[in-house]
Fold:
Amino acid sequence: MGLACVQIDLLDEVADLFEEAKHVLEVEYGPHHPDTLGVYNNLAGTYDAMGRWEDAIEILEYVVGM
Structure:
């Protein structure tokens, strides 16, 4: 759903969906699970597309530091 919204330029909605998915996956699977890491990547990419570069960098630095 989130990636489909990116295609039609609904970036605020996309960010909300990926943030929700991030929280759910962190609780259910933990931060190191491949699905959780994928959502981190998608959220960082969405933030980048929104011009929220500091937020995108923060997420990517968190992942690299794992």
User: Anything to note?
Assistant: The mean pLDDT is 88. Residues 34 and 40 are 10 Å apart (CA to CA). The chain has four helices and no strands.
